[in-house]
Amino acid sequence: MSDHIESPAQQATVPTKNPNALQQGALDHDNGETHGADHGRSVKENSEKAMAASHDQMMALCEENTPESLSEAHDIAHMLLERAELPLAFRTRAHMVLSGGKTDYLCHAQEAVRIAEKGRDIFGPGKTAQEKYAVEALLWQAREMLRRAERDMKELEDIRARKRAGTLKARRTSTAISTR
What we know:
7 helices; coiled coil; mainly alpha; 0% strand
């Protein structure tokens, strides 16, 4: 699979990687050319690389699936969402990560679906089969997180209603009694 991204749909779903970007900036500097635009471009490229690295770290921490790694992934997700220039796919995944948390999980799941749909509407479904799959897979994942969040919210509302009605039974822990 090539790291080169050609279409807007692919840009929305795949982190950009351009290993020659810094080398190109260095070559321009060595040639004594003016870099007003090049400097701005390299800052943008560095920012994109930093966002991609943070995104990849967030996703790796989610894969670890420990309380510590999930807490760190949530911190990274919050940090990424503060960036206005965050690509829509990264923004969707950050909300998906936060939809697995303890607070505002339903809002984050709804936002993940909204952004994934917005990305598909803006950039289209993709031109190649691979691009179409990437766009639809991201949207499917976001919708799945929303289904889980809605299910969890319903269960929580049912528990609260039963508690108010006095029909909620307290859980008892049983201890094994040894008979000798």
